[in-house]
Amino acid sequence: MSVLGIGLDLCPIDRMKQAVERHGDRFLRRVFTEQEQAYAKDASGGMAQSLAARFAAKEAASKSIGAPKGIGWHDVEVVPARKGIEGPRLILRGRAQEVADARGIKTILVSLTHAGGVAAAVAVAVA
Fold first, then answer.
1. Nearest Cα to 110, choosing from 1, 16, 6, 3?
2. Neighbour-count burial of 34, counting CB atoms closer than 10 A to its CB (0-12 exposed, 13-18 middle, 19+ buried)
3. Contact 123, 90 (CB under 8 A)
4. CA distances from 56 to 39, 50, 78, 85 (A)
5. What are the phi and psi torsion angles at 112 (to 5°)?
6. CATH code for 3-126?
7. Are the beta carbons of 37 and 30 closer than 8 angstroms?
8. CA separation (Å) from 61 to 7, 48, 81?
9. Helix count (H) and strand count (E) of the chain?
10. pLDDT interval class at 105 (50, 70, 90)
11. How distant, in Å, are the alpha carbons of 76, 83, 116 from that of 18?
């Protein structure tokens, strides 16, 4: 397994909460898939915390493949972990998948965390 790129991103949880309060469903639909929204609404740590972690993961994934222009928010989807089976994973679509294919990226490993009012994600693109 060869590492082809690494991305890291942070997102303040309060910033995400304010964005949702200010822009509501329009913001949610633009940035998050239906599955990401559904998961966040039932997340034990709260919706804003879950969304902030997913936002950070999308940004980290984009950075791990070189942050090419044209990647849309729905081109990277964060699939939740299955406790005891696997950690969170990413589904690439559209421009993100095109760039990953062109660079020989087979998968992007992702780790999410949150503490002290901040959500963070690291993404590692591997061949």
1. 6
2. exposed
3. yes
4. 16, 10, 10, 23
5. -115, 150
6. 3.90.470.20
7. no
8. 6, 20, 16
9. 4, 5
10. very high
11. 23, 30, 17
Q: Is 76 helix (H, G, I), strand (E, B) or coil?
A: strand
76-104 mean pLDDT: 94
For the record, the structure tokens of 29 come out as 């639909």
Global pTM reads: 0.95
Residues 6+ apart with CB under 8 A from 87: 81, 110, 111
Rg (CA), the chain: 14
- Ordered by start, the domain boundaries in the chain are 3-126
pLDDT in tens, 20-55: 999 999 999 999 999 999 999 998 889 999 999 999
Q: How far apart are CA 20 and CA 68, in angstroms?
A: 26
Please tell me the predicted confidence (pLDDT) of residue 83: 83
Three-state SS string across 47-114, please?
HHHHHHHHHHHHHHHHHHCCCCCCCCHHHEEEECCECCCECCEEEECHHHHHHHHHHCCCEEEEEEEE
Query: For residue 30, what are its two tokens?
Result: 């633009």
